[in-house]
Amino acid sequence: MLTRRDFAKMGKPRLTESTQAITMYDDCKVIPHGWCTMTVTDNRNCKHTLNLLDMETKQHSLLSPKACVDLNLITVNDLVHMVADEPLENILAEYDSVFKGIGCLPGEYDLAIDESITPVQVRPRKIDLSTKEEVKTKLDTLTKQYITEHVESPTPRISHLQPVRKSNGTVRLCLDPQNLNQALKRNHYHMPDIDDVLPQLAEGKMFSLRDTKDGFLQVKLSDKSSHLTTFWTPYVRYKWKRMPFGISTAPEEFQRRLSECLEMTQRCISCGRRHTDIWKRSSRAR
């Protein structure tokens, strides 16, 4: 994609009309003035054929990833080999206690509330019959794991339960706490992005990606905060004893706690939300 100014520098090549709108990164749509096919030469004196769009935009000209690779502007190292030094079954057996149930990160999370926001007790909402039995089974499991608990005393806030169908077919129970989220005070924490992670991986030769299981549920709530997460079910009221999915401050709080656990480990990088990348300079490194 070339701007009109850059196209003019190329001797105004003959354009083929185009009516296909292009969606930009800011979601605005731009219709090109036209397009043409040109042969260009890279710094290795190799010739390449590119399809170029003439765009009326204030942004800079933009090349596709494929064009950048073809023109030798960037190099992509895709020589990746899967290495498994030990069968997965042996690892699971050796660290049996680690993989049982849902883990718990150190400390408790105390939800900071703006007291000027009036608490709301929403009306009960029906759950689809097709998932009702699965929801009951999941609630029973979470209660046995001390992640949820029956509520019998009055609570100022009651939210909805939101069952979500995961890609593997199972049901995840989330909180739908619209009023609570309005009252929550955000604990700002910088979420790492690709620019933060890549420089730390420059010397890595071997990589392993870890995905935390039910990550948010590994953060324990204080007793006071637990009452704030009370929610309706078709049976009785429950509350969360761990940080539920749906809390607006959950991503940053989980990221902060996970990063604190990993900060003393030089070769572990928390890549955001649930993923941790482990890297080594060689297969012998420990």
TrEMBL record:
It comes from the Eukaryota. Residues 164-267 form the Reverse transcriptase domain. Pfam families: RVT_1 (PF00078). InterPro entries: DNA/RNA_pol_sf, Retrovirus_Pol_polyprotein, RT_dom. This is Reverse transcriptase domain-containing protein. It comes from Ridgeia piscesae (Tubeworm). The lineage of its organism: Eukaryota, Metazoa, Spiralia, Lophotrochozoa, Annelida.
